[in-house]
């Protein structure tokens, strides 16, 4: 793998100037066709960002409440921070962008909040309204116990804080109301306007456009109600305009929905009700020294980009005057950077969650900087736009200096990529065209534009297929819900029966009789699955589904009989205990259901009749719902799915259940298929569950970024291919072996990799333990550090027979800073 561009070590002041220069040049090179648009974007960080916000719209207001409240603890807190950030953002535009962080104590939490404008008014003094607003928000959270947002919640029952919140965010609401009015005027004149569809629906249309009650009707089991306005808009205005109208309606109600969602989270999490809000009042600005206020072409040369080519001169010349003026200005820190500096200056203890809530998606510079910190910080996502008016954090901290240097290198790499495209338009700038993992396709010859176009086409196709598959999935049972006979008795529960010989499942009422043990006083529910499981009354087995790996949704936990506590619920699939060996036939109705929910084949054969119903406690049941049926189908299609695919460069649309990992290729993969040593891959939550527990690299733990490894189950390189030559076997993977060296000084195995990771390794999947995306370069640096530096240090200590002190000296050397230094000194691979 080619080494990175080497850059000398500069003083921090010059590093700051280099980031400012590179950010402006990259901004000008990315889009110089509309200078007015660029000028406005410099003044308004959200200019033209409606598409960015719209990408969050459906998730936030269609399913986010139910996903978050049923999700893991960290995701609840992340949404909590995002909601507070949005409620503290009074307007669109640069000034209103807000970021939040959380510190948890024993009985409560403290939320630090920063805003781009530093919460300062035009007179450069603290906005007097904000303090009272924050106190009301604290009171609102404290009073959320048992309140939540139930089915009958309407906007007519507004609390005092909600009224204040609507007034506080009125500029943002007014903006979207005006956008909505403009869209309605355009839609009425659109060729897709269907006047016949409109006849007789005036009352319905008026109802659905009454914002106070419409958007608040979000409920997990009320999917048809939620889809009704969208269908109505689509029929009247056409699909494109209908979707746009529905998205804008959501944005009008966004502050109120965020407020109610915040209340629901606080109702579930008692610790969050005791919240103390602290404002980060920052006046820090970036000012370049006079010697660093230079012309744009001098900056180009000082950045080490070489002589300026003619095409670049033509592109940058119109910005020459603006560049000089911009470099001379004082630049404020973005809200995310204000939080970083707040903790670096020890103004407050560090957050307990490595996540910043944001009122909008993070810009390219903030996202790159946060990811470059030794303990990287996640956000709700990035929009990828480079805004040059970006204050550079200034500190003597080694972590800040390293992050600034890595940001500079990232910007220069992007500029070089654009330069390469300009000078060699037919060549691919991302990477060499090599075969990866034996998969050859025409993708490797595509340009960036072609990649993006194909990505959009694929996403549209996936959206269409998802709608069709979900419709088929619901149709399987939806009609039966309407015509199912009345419940025979209160003890009967609704269940889904999967017969063997039919192509469709059906709804049944199954007896669930409550039983009690008089001696122990313990109650349980006894289900009577016969004759559905067979007239021979076989022993029953139960598969309990507590997590939906496809949608990354936790339904509940602790449903084993020995579990100390239970929470939530699960979907139980009851079957013949020995269905794989008692002669049971393949279940046709499960096959039909899987085919209706996806295009893939079922990864596991299910035999014999089966029954699905909702389990609310161990052996206590409730009626199954359509949502439960979908969870069951998602689980069945992802069961034991270990297929991991390579990442698409710069892919913007990825499922929330997918994490970016790295495949560390074995010697056979590199030699036989011409692969790179390290390849970016997309690893789904289902992949991780199917692959098992894996192993965490001890070296990566010492470096502060724990990484979990799994061997690729593909046996292609378990044996040397015919004609194989060379000293190493095809499955050799020393990069992995050295990362798995034992670091516990008290163990005799110190410095050795376990046998499992010392032979027959093959290709290996690597994923960060914290669930964040793993960068190829980070893995490359770790492997290089372990093989070229740490291996020798371990060997020296073991050969000398030194004791614990020498071993500890080696461990103390394993730091992120030392790894980066070694990488820079040796030039990497």
C-alpha termini separation: 6 Å
Which stretches are low in confidence, meaning pLDDT under 50 for 5 or more residues running?
Answer: 1-7, 32-63, 148-156, 214-227, 426-448, 648-655
Number-wise, the strands total 23
Helix content: 40-55%
Rounded Rg: 29 Å
Largest sheet: 7 strands, antiparallel
Q: Tally the helices: what do you get?
A: 30
Q: What integer is the average pLDDT?
A: 76
Label the overall shape: globular
Structural class: alpha+beta
Q: Number of folding domains?
A: 4
Q: Roughly what fraction of the amino acids lie in strands?
A: 5-15%
Secondary-structure map:
Blueprint (H helix, E strand, L loop, with lengths): L11 H19 L4 H9 L6 H20 L3 H15 L10 E7 L4 E7 L12 H15 L17 H9 L1 H19 L6 H4 L3 H7 L2 H4 L8 H15 L1 H14 L1 H15 L1 H4 L1 E5 L5 E2 L9 H7 L7 H7 L3 H9 L2 E2 L2 H10 L12 E2 L5 H9 L25 H26 L24 H36 L8 E7 L7 E12 L4 E6 L12 E6 L1 E2 L4 E2 L1 E2 L9 E2 L1 E7 L11 H10 L12 E8 L2 E3 L3 H13 L6 E2 L11 E7 L2 H7 L4 E7 H7 L3 E2 L1 H5 L4 E5 L22 H6 L24 E5 L7 H25 L3 H10 L2 H11 L3
Structure notes:
This protein has 829 residues and is of the alpha+beta class. It folds into four domains: 12-37 and 288-329 and 360-421, no CATH class; 61-146 and 157-189 and 203-279, no CATH class; 473-638, no CATH class; 658-826, no CATH class. It contains 30 helices and 23 strands. The strands form six sheets. Strands 7, 8, 9, 10, 15, 16 and 17 form a seven-stranded antiparallel sheet that branches. A hairpin with a 7-residue loop joins strand 7 and strand 8. It is globular, with a radius of gyration of 29 Å. The N and C termini lie close together (6 Å). The model is unreliable at 1-7, 32-63, 148-156, 214-227, 426-448 and 648-655 (pLDDT under 50). InterPro entries: OTT_1508_deam-like. Pfam families: OTT_1508_deam.
């Amino acid at each position: 793998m080619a080494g990175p561009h080497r850059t000398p070590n500069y003083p921090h002041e010059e590093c700051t100037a280099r980031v400012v220069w590179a950010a402006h040049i990259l901004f000008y090179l990315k889009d110089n066709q509309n200078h007015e648009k660029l000028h406005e974007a410099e003044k308004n960080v959200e200019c033209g960002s409606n598409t960015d916000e719209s990408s969050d719209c459906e998730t936030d207001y269609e399913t986010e409440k139910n996903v978050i409240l049923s999700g893991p603890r960290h995701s609840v807190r992340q949404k909590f921070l995002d909601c507070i950030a949005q409620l503290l953002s009074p307007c669109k535009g640069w000034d209103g962008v807000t970021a939040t962080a959380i510190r948890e104590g024993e009985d409560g939490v403290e939320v630090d909040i920063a805003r781009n404008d530093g919460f300062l008014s035009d007179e450069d003094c603290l906005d007097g309204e904000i303090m009272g607003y924050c106190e009301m928000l604290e009171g609102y959270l404290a009073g959320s116990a048992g309140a939540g947002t139930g089915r009958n919640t309407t906007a007519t029952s507004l609390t005092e804080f909600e009224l204040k919140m609507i007034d506080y965010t009125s500029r943002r609401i007014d903006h979207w109301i005006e956008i909505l009015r403009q869209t309605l005027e355009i839609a009425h004149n659109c060729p897709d306007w269907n006047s016949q569809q409109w006849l007789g629906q005036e009352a319905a249309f008026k109802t659905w456009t009454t914002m106070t009650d419409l958007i608040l009707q979000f409920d997990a089991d009320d999917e048809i109600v939620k889809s009704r306005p969208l269908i109505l808009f689509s029929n009247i205005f056409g699909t494109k305009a209908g979707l746009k109208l529905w998205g804008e309606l959501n944005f009008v109600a966004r502050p109120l929905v965020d407020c109610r969602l915040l209340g629901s989270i606080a109702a579930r999490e008692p610790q969050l009700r005791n919240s103390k809000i602290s404002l980060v009042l920052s006046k820090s600005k970036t000012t370049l020294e006079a010697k660093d206020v230079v012309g744009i072409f001098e900056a180009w040369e000082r950045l080490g980009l070489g002589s300026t080519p003619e095409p670049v001169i033509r592109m940058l010349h119109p910005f020459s005057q603006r560049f000089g003026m911009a470099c001379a200005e004082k630049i404020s820190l973005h809200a995310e950077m204000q939080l970083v500096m707040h903790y670096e200056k020890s103004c407050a203890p560090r957050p307990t969650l490595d996540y910043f809530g944001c009122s909008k998606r993070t810009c390219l510079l903030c996202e790159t900087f946060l990811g470059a910190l030794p303990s990287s910080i996640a956000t709700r996502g990035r929009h990828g736009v480079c805004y040059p008016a970006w204050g550079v954090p200034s500190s003597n901290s080694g972590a800040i200096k390293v992050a600034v240097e890595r940001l500079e290198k990232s910007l220069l790499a992007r500029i070089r990529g654009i330069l390469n495209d300009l000078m060699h338009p037919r060549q691919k700038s991302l990477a060499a065209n090599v075969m990866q993992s034996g998969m050859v396709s025409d993708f490797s010859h595509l340009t960036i534009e072609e990649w993006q176009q194909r990505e959009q086409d694929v996403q549209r196709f996936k959206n269409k297929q998802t709608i069709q598959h979900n419709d088929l999935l619901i149709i399987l049972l939806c009609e039966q819900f309407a015509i199912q006979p009345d419940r025979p008795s209160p003890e009967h529960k609704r269940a889904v029966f999967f017969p063997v010989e039919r192509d469709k499942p059906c709804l049944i009422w199954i007896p669930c009789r409550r039983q009690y043990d008089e001696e122990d006083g313990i109650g349980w529910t006894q289900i009577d699955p016969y004759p559905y499981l067979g007239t021979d009354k076989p022993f029953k087995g139960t598969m309990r589904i507590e997590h939906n790996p496809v949608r990354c949704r936790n339904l509940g936990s602790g449903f084993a009989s020995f579990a100390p506590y239970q929470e939530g619920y699960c979907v139980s699939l009851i079957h013949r205990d020995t269905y794989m060996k008692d002669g049971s036939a393949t279940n046709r109705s499960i096959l039909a259901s899987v085919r209706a929910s996806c295009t893939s084949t079922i990864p596991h054969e299910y035999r014999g009749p089966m029954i699905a119903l909702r389990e609310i406690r161990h052996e206590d049941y409730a009626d199954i719902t359509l949502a439960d049926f979908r969870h069951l189908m998602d689980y069945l299609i992802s069961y034991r799915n270990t297929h991991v695919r390579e990442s698409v460069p710069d892919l913007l649309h990825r499922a929330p259940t997918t994490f970016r990992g790295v495949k560390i290729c074995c010697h056979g993969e590199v030699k036989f298929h011409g692969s790179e040593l390290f390849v970016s891959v997309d690893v789904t939550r289902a992949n991780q569950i199917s692959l098992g527990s894996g192993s965490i690299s001890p070296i990566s733990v010492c470096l502060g970024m724990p990484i979990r490894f799994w061997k690729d189950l593909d046996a292609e390189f378990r044996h040397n291919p015919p004609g194989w030559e060379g000293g190493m076997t095809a499955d050799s993977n020393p990069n992995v072996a050295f990362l798995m060296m034992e670091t516990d000084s008290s163990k005799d195995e110190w410095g050795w990799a376990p046998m499992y990771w010392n032979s027959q390794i093959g290709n290996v999947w690597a994923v960060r333990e914290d669930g964040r995306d793993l960068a190829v370069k980070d893995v490359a640096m770790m492997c290089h550090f372990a093989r070229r530096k740490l291996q020798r240090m371990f060997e020296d200590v073991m050969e000398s027979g030194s004791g614990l002190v020498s071993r500890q000296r080696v461990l103390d050397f394993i730091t992120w800073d030392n790894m980066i230094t070694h990488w820079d000194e040796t030039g990497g691979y």
